[in-house]
User: Fold this.
Amino acid sequence: MLPQVKANYDALGPQVAKKMNERFFEAYYVSTKEEALAKALELIGKDDLVSWGGTVTADQIGLKDALYARGQKMLDRDKAASPEERVEILHKALGCDFFLMSANAISADGQMVNIDGTGNRVAALCYGPRNVLVIAGMNKVAPNLDAAVLRARNVAAPTNVFRFPDLQTPCKIAGKCIDCKGETSVCAQFVTTRLCKPAGRIKVILVGEELGF
Assistant:
């Protein structure tokens, strides 16, 4: 990362966190992924039941490994023995103590934008788990809500499909959203979180690094 980009993240990050706190999120800014990991482990109680939606960022900061290492109770869909058990875990995750995820985009005025295919991730964000922990690199921050939506559609979603080698979507070919409506689309649910209710339920760690996509 260029030094001037890092300096910009460190200048802007606390301002975005302040705007999110004004919208009743419990938001923090940290400069490094090591600080992000420490803050996440501080927020998650050792007796809490933890699960997650698809989140590359949690893996990048080493959070899942650290939780396993301290003996955390986990609902891990990737350890399911069958597709049926995987679905069961997805449903059980809606009642966990901490649900981990990232954001597809965050506006500079503190609003969060997410796009989901199955819907389990945004469902947990909106209602269910006692706490939601969102960890997002500053590369996810856009100047305003319109720009955040454009980022989610034209950067996050087309990049996300490459996590699934067998999935073929028009955006995977074009490199941008073309508003497809086929069965393979990963863009079924568009959710803008304008305010956090109840206050403090959604905890956000903004990180001054480029994490996720």
